[in-house]
Each structure stands twice: as C-alpha cells, then as structure tokens.
Design brief:
Helix content: 55-70%
Radius of gyration: 27 Å
Strand content: under 5%
Number of strands: 2
Number of helices: 12
Shape: elongated
Distance between the termini: 108 Å
C-alpha cells in the first residue's frame, strides 16, 4: 500500500514527542535542589543518608517535631537562613550531631561576617571536641573580634587536651588585655603542668595586672 503524506508525518511526530519527553526528564533530574547548591558553595557533599538524631521534646529548635533531618538540611539553615535565632538553633544542632560534615560546616562558619554566628560556631565546635574542632578553635584566636577570641579560649579550656592548651600560647601576644586575662584564668583552671608552663610566659606581660594575676595563679598550681 502506498503511504500518503499524512501517514508519513505521524511516525515522525511520535518520534519527536518521545525524544522530547526523554530529554526533558533528564533535564529535570539534572536541576540541583537547594542542598546541591549549598554543597557547591560550601564544598560539603550533602548526603541524605546521614541523619541528625531527633531532638527531645524539652529542647527548642526546628528538629523538635521532625523524625529525621539530614545534615544537609541543617547546614543549609545554619548558613543561609536570614533569622539569627534559626541560625543559632541549626548551629547547635550541628554541634549535637557529631558528624564529620558538621565539623566542616562549623569551621566554615568561622568566616561568617556576623561575630555572633562565629561565637555560636565556636561553642558547637567545643561540643564536638575533635582534632579538627581544636584546629578551628585555634584559628579563631586570631579573630578580629575580642569576644570571639575569648569564646575560643573558653572552649579550648573546656576541652583541656594538650593540643588545646598548647594552642593557647598564641594568646601571649593578643593586643587586648582582657583576652590575655581570660587566657590566664582559663589556663589556671586546668591545673595542668603544661598550662603552668604557658602561664610562666605571662609573667613577662606588658600589663602589670596580667603579670600579677598570672603570678598569683602560678603560686596555687602544682609544680
């Protein structure tokens, strides 16, 4: 039977529709969602299979009423949410998760322009207590904000490990007297020999009050 022009057109149209649907489906799958975009900018690969434990009902935060929330969701809230309270809650969740991705995200938040966010990130890094967290806390001892530096000192003192105590030696040259006094008090609280060695260096501080406080604490510490 001879094909008419109409009969020849129908298969061509069907082929075009099929190809369009096939490539359109691939295009939809290729569009990154918000978690993929934040992974690109933060350098963190968001893995939906890694989950944060559910928060207990007596604690505040977005996780209180959810059964499973991925680390990627929490990272996105910590980095991108406009509200300070929401970001603080997400940062606290990262500190509770004890996941490697959380550590990376918290260290990244030490570059945030808001010093309150940097302080919150330091507190969560202190909660993690890992070697990477100590490196992040040590980095913050050079922060331009004195309150952030004092928070970093407090977190290192709470950890009290040799690496944490050793990192505090940089506070000897801190330009702010109150920061140096915070370091002196924190070192004395650890009651460790290593801390006493760092305290010895504060006896040469340019400020008389820092020297006096350091000497007083050294007299009460074990030798």
């Amino acid at each position: 039977m001879r094909m008419t022009r109409r009969h020849r057109v129908v298969p061509i149209v069907c082929c075009v529709v099929f190809c369009w649907r096939f490539f359109a489906a691939d295009s939809v799958d290729a569009v990154p969602d918000s978690r993929d975009r934040i992974a690109v900018h933060s350098g963190i690969s968001v893995t939906p299979s890694v989950a944060v434990p559910e928060r207990t009902p007596d604690r505040q935060g977005d996780l209180a009423n959810s059964r499973i929330t991925t680390i990627g969701d929490v990272v996105e809230r910590a980095q991108l949410y406009p509200g300070l309270h929401e970001r603080h809650e997400a940062i606290a969740d990262l500190g509770d998760s004890h996941e490697p991705l959380a550590e990376l995200a918290l260290v990244g938040l030490l570059y945030d322009e808001d010093p309150r966010i940097r302080e919150a990130a330091l507190e969560s890094l202190g909660a993690l207590g890992s070697s990477g967290a100590i490196q992040g806390l040590s980095y913050a001892l050079n922060d331009p904000n004195d309150l952030v530096r004092r928070t970093a000192i407090e977190m290192l003192v709470e950890l009290g490990t040799p690496d944490a105590i050793g990192a505090m030696a940089i506070t000897l040259t801190d330009p702010d007297r109150d920061v140096r006094l915070t370091a002196v008090t924190g070192l004395a609280d650890t009651q460790s020999v290593m801390a006493a060695n760092v305290l010895q260096s504060f006896l040469s501080d340019t400020d008389s009050l820092v020297r006096e406080v350091a000497a007083e604490y050294l007299n009460d510490m074990p030798h």
